[in-house]
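User: What would this chain look like folded?
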Amino acid sequence: EVQLQASGGGLVQPGGSLRLSCVVSGSGFSGYYMSWGRQAPGKGFEWISGITLGGTSTLYADSVKGRFTVSRDNAKNTLYLQMDNLKPEDTALYYCGPHRPMSNRGQGTQVTVSS
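Assistant: Here's the prediction, encoded as structure tokens.
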């Protein structure tokens, strides 16, 4: 089973940007479809983005389309999420994981968007 370590979260003002990283240990990263998801306080889990094995195709939820960009570096076993034009409603605990739905989420990283 893979181990997932997400990082890069923090406090940012509305309109700001953050870049999340997710390092995946264990073999097989390049063979997994990878996803990002999030859970806001008091709300259910929301899948927000996915990327194919080679990184050639990406998919986004409507809530983040046009503002977030997912990418991956298979040589570094790392998944990324560039988040621009952040909004207060983006405040959540962000998770990465293989597949969709995600079979494993790891610990997550907190993103707080507030002035």
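The mean pLDDT is 95. If you want, I can go into more detail on any region.
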